[in-house]
């Protein structure tokens, strides 16, 4: 027997309709790419998003067509998201920090028909435009006054383009499983892979993100997503904030410590979200200038591990540091660290021990750890294995890739290696391709890196597995020293000795001038492996 409840498809644009109707005057404030602070609200954004839909419809964009955006966090970009999705077209966010060849590859793979871009990225697009054969026109997210001279095909200023629509348009209703948005993973191995979100997965994810133990922002709060709309589905904030009626503050192109601080302070921001690098810049700026943020209540931090010292810095300011783990394939929330019972009353170092884990999943994410053969491993906080997940906002396949990515129980292998403790707290120990397999046992490269950066002379550290005739692989520690600082191999090894198992100690240390990073700021181990491909350990 089926239930007798209404068939109400979970469509992304219903979120903005709700925001416009119930929280219409709630502000959306942007540091515009052109410079000045711009203020609008959800009712206006809704009106203009309808014009975008109408205008795209007139240009012949139909259900399932891909429309790319290469843009900073601004009100125009937000309108574009909803305008594209409202007609069942697919909003493909492209990461402008990728190499131009990768951007071209991704746009061609997605077969984007229209590209919406900020003025910042016009020169990059001009260089690759002749390769972008599927693109029919470029819409530059600006007005007539700021429209640059460009060779881009059929280029038009966004404000002129939408001025041709009157907004008398109704958003479409269709199956909630229809594709809504697309985001390619950065492809640190092989080609980038397209994750294709559905309307349903995005709405489900927004509901999950809205819970108090998740992003936890409500109608009386103000959220500043430093995380870009193009990074892993904006961590869901483009949906969760309007669904709650949370005021949004969008930082545009300026993500340095001083600019982010200024917006946090002047707009009295309560909640913010971004990667550790951003918070490092903010904390440095605040410490140097002895600044305070009395309104700030929560900093969500993910993308890579949040260092303990950073968690402590926020906790000491009276701000909740919410360490989160996730990935593009998960829309992206996987787990968040909060002090739940029996840990609610912990303080000091004991609290930091919990807050430093990647946390536990909200309802809607299931996880397990397995060995290489797929056998489930115990949740004892010590055994580590491949982390696998399932849920309504987790990918089941990649776009135009003919490969099964789920195990026989429908779980997706995250590529991360983790432990899970009896209370459900997960701790990432490595990426599966980075873990060092020494004599049949696993060594966590992340644990070694975290330990090495604790040495006062070390700026950054990376560990890779290098072939060893006896042990198969052994760890090589690659170190970039802080400017003007000195430390020898023996100094660093002595510092590490006794803090980890003897057999985890690196076999050698290589000093380098710089460590390469991916477009999302993570250490690029593939490049390091290439760089050290001819390396052999002394005496082997
Ligand atoms: P990109 O490489 O494009 O940034 P993702 O954002 O999807 O792609 O990256 C997801 C990966 O980032 C995870 O699988 C994990 O390895 C890493 N990651 C994300 N959050 C954390 C965290 N809090 N701690 C450690 N690693 C993290």
TrEMBL record:
Database matches in PROSITE patterns: AMP_BINDING
Enzyme superclass (EC): ligase
Highest taxon of the lineage: Bacteria
AMP-dependent synthetase/ligase domain span: 31-399
Gene3D superfamilies: 3.30.300.30, N-terminal domain of ligase-like
MF terms (GO), sorted A to Z: ligase activity
One GO term of the biological process aspect: fatty acid metabolic process
Keywords attached to this entry: Fatty acid metabolism, Ligase, Lipid metabolism
EC number: 6.2.1.44
Catalysed reaction, written as an equation: 3-(methylsulfanyl)propanoate + ATP + CoA = 3-(methylsulfanyl)propanoyl-CoA + AMP + diphosphate
Residue intervals of the AMP-binding enzyme C-terminal domain: 448-522
Family annotation (PANTHER family): ACYL-ACTIVATING ENZYME, BUTANOATE--COA LIGASE AAE1-RELATED
Family, per entry: Belongs to the ATP-dependent AMP-binding enzyme family.
Name this polypeptide is given: 3-methylmercaptopropionyl-CoA ligase
The species this protein was found in: Bradyrhizobium erythrophlei
